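To assess whether the prediction recovers the assembly geometry, we first specified each molecular entity separately, as shown.
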Amino acid sequence: MSNNDTWQRVHPASPFVHGWLAIVGLLYIYWQNTDELSFAERFAGDRLLWTLGLAGAALLVVLAFYFLSWYFTRYKLTESHVYVNSGTLFRSQKQARIDKVQGIDIAQPLVARLLGLAELRFDVADSSESVLRLAFLSKADAHALRQLILERANSGTPSEARVLTDPADPNQADPNPATLPLMAKVPIGRLLASLFLQLPIVIGTLACLTMVILWLTGVQGIIAGVLPVLLSFGSWFYKQLNQGWNYTASAMDTGMRISYGLADTRQHSIPAGRVQAICVTAPLLWRLVGWYKVEVNVLGTKNDDADNFQVLPVGDFESVTRIMGILLPDLGVINQREVLATAVSTGYEHGFIGSPSRAKSLSPGAWKHQGFLVTDTTVISRYGWLARTATFVPHSRVQGMEFSQGPWEQKRKLAGVRLFCAGGNIIGHLHQVDAQIAAEFTLAQATRQVER
Amino acid sequence: MTATTPWSPNSFTPAHPSYFKVKLTTWAITWGVILLVTLIPGVLLLAGVSTPLWLAIAAPVLALVIALLILRILRRQVLALGYLEREEDFIVRSGVMWRKQVVIPYGRMQYVEVNSGPLERRFGLCQLTLNTAGAGATAHVYGLPAEQGQALRERLVSAGEEKML
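The predicted structure of the complete assembly is given in tokenized form:
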């Protein structure tokens, strides 16, 4: 770590951008409390003196806070790290490794734009928590600093997090998608059927029907309740429909490409190397027809909502195996297909370890489904009651692991282990397994996940 | 009763004993305020405003009972905190009722944060947070003496560079 780089302060106007609301708030309170006065009365005689005095005092307090906030906010750029210190009372010191920075955004909130300031946001991963912010710099400084950090990042060691220059824009069309081998396609009939076989839709439809019946039998005003329900379900339904409409998935050299869309066709390419975790879900009613949904955690996708990235809206086991074959080619077992079949259903073949019957009283509906299997490359875990889920987390993708045991689990000598991954909400979860087995798994997994 | 956990509780570096005072002060302030709020119906009653009698009695009693229950496990909560530096990863433990041991490999660390609130600074303590790319994979170390916290941060940062995956 080179120490020749010095600490620098942010732009002096920065606190104002954060705190302008305070000033507006004070003005508003003043205005409210002197409502009954005319304009001339506000600024006459004794009142003028008081007003000016109080305003000056308030201004001094606010300025003092601003100054302290500015004074304690400092940043430093070294060869390998960015450091940001902030906080007057609650001091925080943050740092980010430059070679792990995945992208730097320059953001300009309204007030900052008016003042010609900009905020740097370091996307050190894609989970919202790990964002480092540096606010505010003058716009020119922000661009220069961004350029400097990007240069340092690119001159560093090669790593898979090398996306700063954005080599492949996922929205750019490939030469000819039609020539790529087709992996899965969702017919419109199946998509509609799959949507209506989901519990939220069933419940929503039932609720609407009940209200209509009540209305017809003479309960007044109930129809007003239908509208918001319809609206919220409508938007959910449209989103699902849009994501599955005309859905095709095809194989590429590096991964897969999907396209879908109702109004406009969207295309995404998903490089297999950027997939962090895979989740195969079978909602309650889909189990009757043997359908599954496949979602992934993938680095570098800017998802506007909290949902996971969907790579198969609905499909049978054959489609699931094909997609898994691309995204996770090496499951770490010889009989890949059979293991996959056990993983997405219920059973203890191929070495799956389930919850002991002691877990029955804690999860009466799910304990028979819960279980896990460790292969050479991956941890497969099954959990869930109504919607049964199987998650696949490769050892090398585990960001952190949590062994946990609640009071009811302690009594029954059960424990759980969570495997956290980057790029989305999917986690591996060993739910309510024997405490001894969970502890041994944690110890062994700690070794497995740092193997190179 | 010996609990089944991956790593034995004894192998961890415990939180500094004075962190208990930090927790105790926080507890006293929080529950003091809550108790004051629950006393409002009683005061109103004494002032002659018609207030249900049960509310004036039940609310403060309930607050007091919960506060004392929490106080009972406060010391054990502090004793349950600890961290363990290993060859390849960093482990923190916490919790009495909900026991947890979180494992973060050095190579997956993204940044390390050292924070100290006014109360912690008074006792010369700080807390350290270790962040990764995974949303849930965050390790918190509470009740670290300030110099120990800085030293630990330096060690973690250099281990992260060395063990980068």
